[in-house]
Amino acid sequence: MPYGRQNISTDDIQAVIEVLRSDYLTQGQAVPEFENAICLKVGARYGVAANSATSALHMACLALGLGVGDVVWTSPNSFVASANCALYCGAKVDFVDINPATYNLDVDLLEQKLKNAKINSKIPKIIIPVHFAGRSCDMKRIYELSLIYGFKIIEDASHAIGGKYLDAYIGSCKYSDITVFSFHPVKIITTGEGGVALTNSSRVAESMRLFRSHGITRESENFTCKHSNDGDWYYEQNFLGYNYRMTDIQAALGISQLKSLEKFIFERENIVQWYNFNISSLDIVLPIISPDVSSANHLYVIRVKQDRSRIFRELKNSGIGVNVHYIPIHLQPYYRKMGFRYGDYPNAENYYEEAISLPIYPGLNLQEMVYIKDRLLESLGS
Ligand SMILES: *Cc1c(COP(=O)(O)O)cnc(C)c1O
User: Fold this and answer.
1) pTM summary value
2) 139 in the Ramachandran plot: left (φ > 0), alpha (ψ -120 to 50) or beta?
3) What's the pLDDT tens digit per position in 337-365?
4) Would the pLDDT of 184 be above 90?
């Protein structure tokens, strides 16, 4: 029993087989179809699929003009990719500590940090809020701060496809420049590896498409060189891009998986309700639900007041695939070398000391949930 896993149907398998029998394994019709299907689902104008969310975050930063001398702020309670994307561009990273109740970047602390940054004229170019566990950050307030202080916003919604914020699906980019989803198998829907960057700006979308494929354009209106009349084979590279393309094999799986999104979200919500109702112990803090947020419930994190290592080990030894999300990014040796230290973000550090992610995925059955609950309460002595 892992903490998260994919749920693959016979329709999913059939969709992949069809691509394998077709003419195009990559650069065919499945990728634009997948991009359109996601846009339609979440209410964004443009989608640019990539071979991972990490690549999508990198393309997103590049398209917003991030470079040497710039700064990005994000949450320390995230996967390292949320911060690494800034480093790929030669920019610097800084963090805003989390809210101790939501485990998301704390907007009061953000506002305070922006006030201080303004005095030193070190306003970040981009802020990357992470919708931890699938629960949206307070995007309206972050957006309002962006209007005052002039930063861009990339939502790292790797956990959050299918979640909602104020009646709109996460991904609508109503309060951001770009939103990124991940399709890694532990996430809500999967393409094996994969991600997408959504935006409502045609210029940003076009820029991300160019970065996705070597910085190469085949559109004659973008040509700048005198050889542009050479013939139909002609293409032009005007800046340095990458090969971050998603294959049609992956996209076909994604199109099929997307059809199950509501079902997956419903199942995850039921698991959360069951855990919330059945796991009660004075020694556990359960996740909170905010009224203006409907979580995609990627993770179910409890905080334990007793020795976390012991409880984790006991659950693991009982065959329960617990995990911990996340080791604060600033405590990674690579980030410590940049000068970050223990004590810099106490909320994220205190949270980390107590956190355990319990298994949650579509297909986790009642018998397994009862087993998890019994072993957990046994471990806590309650
Ligand atoms: C999984 C994850 C990523 C990276 O996603 P990949 O598709 O594996 O590259 C980035 N940010 C967060 C918060 C994630 O959980």
Assistant:
1) 0.97
2) alpha
3) 999 999 999 999 999 999 999 999 999 99
4) yes
Ligand 1 pocket member 53 (CB < 6 A): yes
How buried is residue 37: exposed, middle or buried, by Cβ count under 10 Å (0-12/13-18/19+)? middle
Please identify, by atom number, the ligand 1 atom nearest to the C-alpha of residue 55: 9
CA 275-106-118 angle, 5° bins:
170
Query: Using alpha carbons only, what angle is made at residue 289 by residues 183 and 75, rounded to the nearest 5 degrees?
Result: 55
For residue 149, give the 3-state DSSP assignment. Answer: helix
Look up residue 16 and give its two tokens: 């992949």
Query: Does ligand 1 come within 6 angstroms of the Cβ of 52?
Result: yes
**Cα of 294 from ligand 1 centre, angstroms:** 20
Closest to 132 (Cα-Cα) out of 256, 297, 346: 297
Determine contact, residues 348/77, Cβ cutoff 8 Å: yes
CA 197 to ligand 1 centroid distance, Å? 12
| Digit-coded pLDDT (tens) for 291-302 | 778 999 999 999
The finding on whether 256 has its CB within 6 A of some atom of ligand 1 is: no
